[in-house]
Amino acid sequence: xxxxxRGTTERVFALLGLLQQRRSWTGPELAGRLGVTTRTVRRDxxxxxxxxxxxxxxxxxxxxxxxxxGQDLPPLLLDDEEAIATVVSLLAGAGGAAAGDAAxxxxxxxDQVLPVRLRHEVxxxxxxxxxxxAGRTPVDPEVLMTLARACRDEVEAGFGYPxxxxxxxxxxxxxxxxxxxxxxxxxxxDLDRDGWRTFRVDRMTEVSARTWRFRPRAAPDAAAYxxxxxxxxxxxxRARFLVYxxxxxxxxxxxxxAAVVREREGGRCEVVSGAGSLDSVLMxxxxxxxxFTVLDPPELRxxxxxxxxxxxxxxxxxxxxxxxx
Length: 325
Known about the structure:
about 325 residues, Alpha-Beta Plaits, five-stranded antiparallel beta sheet, four-stranded antiparallel beta sheet, about 45% helix
């Protein structure tokens, strides 16, 4: 880019900044601020339109200009204070708000272009942001950013992770960060165990990204893999049920981290869940209030009959007179 092109680009961005500051400007006002002629202002307005900005030109001697909403979101121009405020807000959102996954995607885009001079202020301000109430397990936003960068740049990552009674170093090819209603997870290929794994971000320690790049492997759907693992694979007992209610109705009753709900024909759905015992899984589905059939495992059907007889007996037995005993 030569000096003329650079000067034009800088002037167009300066024009955009002025249009974002105030609702309406006259042509002479913009020309005076930019130190150019009104003809140059008109040419620069056309350049902004070509970039996707809808700049409306008013009639009259002054030829007023104002920035209007577009059909697609064009690039935004932020000054230093606005950029810092935006990043700090996104850091807080990525750490635990309901829109955390969207906040993290936006944050990784800003991270690519954020000037180095602003990073210290962002870190200092993000440390003063707190939240309260229900939500995800808190995680360090900088850990999320390190992992998000590693996913984006396709570089290996390393971290300490609990394994039994000790913490072991894990070396992975990070693929996706996945947010549930309760926690953040990293879906990655574990290089030491040679397979896809799910890691809770809040359990990681000493997270770092390496410079060693990798070629992405064919991967399963990250969100579906993580959800099924969190809802069932991590538990010693797993069960499948055919529930006679629409999937949308059942999903509204069960947290996504507690079960996988799949649409089935005829207004039914399949529910896959896990727990410490089969009785616990069974009771969760029973309390949904819908008719259901046990699909797997076979022994759970026999357990249903035992518990049904126990409940029938409890309901039919006479109430003891405790005051006489």
